[in-house]
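Person: I keep going back and forth on a fold encoding question. Show me how you would write down a chain together with its backbone fold. Please set it down just below, with no commentary around it:
Helper:
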Amino acid sequence: MFVRIMNAIEEHDDYFMQKRNAAGTLGLSCLQKVVAAFRMIAYGVAADATDDYVRIGESTALESLRRFVIVVVQVFGPEYMRLPNE
């Protein structure tokens, strides 16, 4: 289930794709960004506490959470957030 969500998010938003920076080193992976967002939602972990476990900065964790929520609603909203039927 986690991998399905992660793959759908990565395909929908370029922010979650791993890219190279100006120095040519790889940036954060989609897995790191999604795990940080999941930890903040599921366990109530503070954004600055994600650095110890996921190796991601506070501002990046907050941006990942913000984008994660938006993308989940856009991708899975029509199917899972619809009005109940009889």
Q: What stands out?
A: The helical segments are 2-12, 30-43, 50-54, 58-80. The mean pLDDT is 90. The longest helix spans residues 58-80. The radius of gyration is 14 Å.
